[in-house]
Amino acid sequence: MTRKFRGAALVALGASAALALTACSGDDGGSNDGGATDSGPVTLHMWTNASTGPGTEYWAQFAKDLHAKYPNITLQIQNIQNENYDGKLQTAINSGSAPEIFYQRGGGKMGDMVDAGQVLDLSDLITDETTTAIGDGVLKSEQIDGKTYAMPYTVTPGGMWYSKDLFQQAGVSSTPTTIDELNTAVTQLKAKSITPIALGAKDAWPAAHWYYWFALRECSEDTLNSTAQSLKFDDPCWTKAGDDLDAFAKTQPFNKGFLSTSAQQGAGSSAGMLANHKAAQELMGAWEPGTVASLTPDQKPLPDLGFYGFPAVNGGQGDPKAIMGGVDGFSCSAKAPKQACADVLNFLVTKDTQEQFYKAFQAIPVNKEAQSVVSESYLKEAIAAYNEAPYVSLWLDTLYGANVGNALNTAVVNLLAGKGSVSDIISTVNSAAAKG
Q1: How does pLDDT run across 253-275, given as a tens digit for each residue?
Q2: Hey, which of 1, 270, 288, 302 would disulfide with 200, CB 3.0 to 4.6 Å?
Q3: Is 333 helix (H, G, I), strand (E, B) or coil?
Q4: What is the number of alpha carbons within 13 Å of residue 220 lying toward its C-beta?
Q5: Where are the beta strands (DSSP E) in 285-340?
Q6: How many beta carbons lie within 10 A of that of residue 40, not counting itself?
Q7: In CATH, what number is assigned to the domain containing residue 36?
Q8: Residue 14: pLDDT above 70?
Q9: In terms of Cα–Cα distance, which of 237, 39, 29 is closest to 126?
Q10: Is 27 exposed, middle or buried (0-12, 13-18, 19+ CB in 10 A)?
Q11: What is the average pLDDT across 103-113?
Q12: Tally of domains in the chain
């Protein structure tokens, strides 16, 4: 069942989930006031992967607003650093001490939880108002065999986030559309003593994203789908993606010490380098603007931030407009009180709550009416790239589950560190898949 889902998840975010920047008709998406109030007071624990000031403040206010609407629900929020989140959650789930509500990455990781009976089926708990507010396409991204196991709350298309000022200083007059053009831009930036690309490889997954994107360009949609079901990385495109990354890395486009640089923690992180004009760009998902904003000197959005899609490769079988991203959500643990969890999750995607989420995180809300307040050009560009994509893939470490994903991330870092080869990436992920 899980592998069937992984294949479907690859394209679940296509045209049917297109995002609108204009207001649409409909209710505010709130659930009714019944449920938890009928069963008496309840305290729920909720884990998020927020770690920045505005983000943690948003969740604290969310708990207060929820309690004002549902006086019998008390929500205790625990914010966990993103890079520590998966391990901490898995430990809690395995020990039977999981929080009632927790941040959900989806894909094969969620499929494993469903297979183990660790999350609630939310299908009958999501209101019609919520479905109208966020749309069937986005909701389907959190489904397995037609059943919903998480409430989506933000869409995170990935791509290149860059400093317009640094590009201008280096004479880069237009954003790259091909890898050859990106190589030219890297050369121009180096000539002005500007670090071309920030990379926080200490956390592994940011480095692996480069391999993911080369694979998205080299592999056809059919290959990505079939691999998601078989977990066999035997198509030549997987090796070509590694060759692409190896060749690109040898041009030394990344910051010095990238192997020991973290992704999102502090001004010295890769996101901090972009925030402080110490690097010209970074490959990341649509959470990047909020992370960068939290790391600028005044903790405000970077005024010259821009976005462009990952460049095309010569001869690649993938569509050059295909995009990689995700729909982040929240799940309820299998032991959680159903109606109380339903009230929290339905409230999570109401228009007002989603507008506050956007303001705090500089991220794209799933509520279609809330999207009407998005004003930043870089987010509009990311939404446009998402809407124009013929298909959207989940992040590969999410799509293929924890075992394969962790092995893939580690193998890519080893390649960049000179401790492994392209063939090692393929053998490592195949071995991890065989072990289940």
Answers
A1: 999 999 999 998 899 999 999 99
A2: 270
A3: strand
A4: 6
A5: 305-308, 323-325, 327-332
A6: 8
A7: 3.40.190.10
A8: no
A9: 29
A10: middle
A11: 86
A12: 2
Is a pLDDT exceeding 90 seen at residue 401?
A: no
Do 214 and 277 fall within a single domain? yes
pLDDT tens, residue by residue, 337-347 = 999 999 999 99
Question: Among candidates 298, 301, 258, 299, which has minimal Cα distance to 282?
Answer: 258
Q: Is residue 391 part of a domain?
A: no
Q: What are phi and psi of 54, to 5 degrees?
A: -60, -35
Which helix (H) or strand (E) element contains residue 429?
helix 422-434
| Cα–Cα distance, 11 to 391 (Å, whole number) | 5
pLDDT digits (tens, 9 = 90+) for 59-81: 999 999 999 999 999 999 999 98
Whether residues 171 and 73 share a domain: the answer is: no
Helical packing angle, 401-416 and 107-115, nearest 10° = 150
Domain match, 27 and 58 both: yes
Q: What kind and span of H or E run contains 42?
A: strand 42-48
Q: What Cα–Cα distance (Å) separates residue 136 from each residue in 133, 142, 146, 367?
A: 9, 10, 11, 12
Contact assessment for residue 6 and residue 232, using Cβ atoms and an 8 Å cutoff:
no
Whole-angstrom CA distances from 151 to 97, 101, 138, 324, 348 are 21, 10, 10, 20, 8
Mean pLDDT of all residues in 169-190: 98
Burial tier of 353 (Cβ tally within 10 Å: 0-12, 13-18, 19+): buried
- Amino acid at site 220: S
pLDDT in tens, 314-344: 999 999 999 998 889 999 999 999 999 999 9
Q: Where does the pLDDT of residue 308 fall: very low under 50, low under 70, confident under 90, or very high at 90 and above?
A: very high
Q: Is the pLDDT of residue 301 over 60?
A: yes
Total count of residues recorded for the chain: 436
Question: In which band, very low, low, confident or very high, does the pLDDT at 4 lie, cut at 50, 70 and 90?
Answer: very low
Using an 8 Å Cβ cutoff, are 337 and 39 in contact? yes
Count other Cβ atoms within 10 Å, centred on residue 303.
9
Residues 207 and 262 in one domain: yes
Residue 356 structural domain: 2-157+326-379
How much is the CA Rg of the chain, to the nearest whole Å? 21
Are 317 and 351 within one domain?
Answer: no
Positive or negative: CA dihedral 309, 313, 315, 317: negative
Q: What's the rounded Cα separation, in Å, for the pair 9 and 13?
A: 8
